[in-house]
Design goal:
The chain has 4 helices and 10 strands, in the order βββαβββαβαβββα. The chain has helices at residues 43-46, 82-85, 95-107, 153-171, and strands at 14-18, 26-29, 35-37, 47-56, 60-68, 72-78, 88-94, 117-119, 128-135, 141-146. Strand 2 and strand 3 form a beta hairpin. The termini are far apart.
Length: 172
C-alpha cells in the first residue's frame, strides 16, 4: 500500500504500480480501480505559472496566481471583494517554496489526472472554481467546476489557504 490518495475517489487504498523516479510512479486505486500518476517529463520543472480561484455569488471570488521569475516567484492574492477593498496583494516566495507547491500539486494531488470540468447542475448558487497550470513546454492544463469537485479539492484548498490568509493579513 502507498500513502497516496486517489484523485478520483479520494481513498488511500492505493498501490504503487511501477516506476522508480517520482515522475514515473504510477498508482492504482484498490477501491475504484483507476490508475493515476506516471506523469512524464517532470511537469514541476516546466510549470511556470499556477492560477487558482474559487468562490460564489454571496461569498465573493478570491484568486491566487504564482508566476515563476529568475530566482523567485511572484504571488498575487485577490480578496473575495477586491474591487471594494483596494485590490490585490503581491509578495514574493523563494523558489524552494514554489517547488514544494508544484511537487504537491503534481505528486500528491495528481492535478494532471483531474477532469477538465466538474459540474453539478442541480445547484443554482454555490461555489465555482478554476485551476490553470501554464507550462513552458506544452499547452496549459485547466480544470474548472461549479458546485462539484475532484476528490482531492479540499487538499488543494488546504495548500493555498495560508497564502489567502496572508493576503488578507497584508490588507489589514
Amino acid at each position: 500500500m502507498s500513502d497516496k490518495h486517489c484523485p478520483y475517489c479520494g481513498q488511500e487504498e492505493t498501490e504503487e504500480n511501477c516506476g522508480e523516479a517520482q515522475a514515473a510512479r504510477k498508482y492504482i486505486c484498490q477501491v475504484c480501480d483507476q490508475s493515476f500518476g506516471g506523469t512524464k517529463d517532470s511537469p514541476e520543472l516546466h510549470c511556470d505559472e499556477v492560477y487558482f480561484s474559487h468562490g460564489g455569488f454571496f461569498s465573493g471570488n478570491q484568486s491566487l496566481r504564482i508566476e515563476e521569475r529568475d530566482g523567485y516567484a511572484d504571488l498575487t492574492v485577490s480578496s473575495p471583494f477586491s474591487e471594494t477593498e483596494g485590490g490585490d496583494v503581491r509578495f514574493r516566495i523563494m523558489l524552494c517554496e514554489w517547488m514544494v507547491i508544484k511537487t504537491t500539486l503534481f505528486y500528491d494531488l495528481f492535478v494532471m489526472d483531474w477532469q477538465e470540468a466538474y459540474n453539478d447542475p442541480t445547484i443554482l448558487d454555490g461555489t465555482q472554481w478554476e485551476l490553470k497550470l501554464t507550462f513552458d513546454d506544452r499547452e496549459s492544463v485547466k480544470s474548472v467546476g461549479s458546485n462539484a469537485f475532484p476528490a482531492l479539492y479540499d487538499d488543494l484548498l488546504e495548500l493555498f489557504t495560508p497564502y489567502f490568509d496572508q493576503g488578507a493579513f497584508e490588507r489589514d
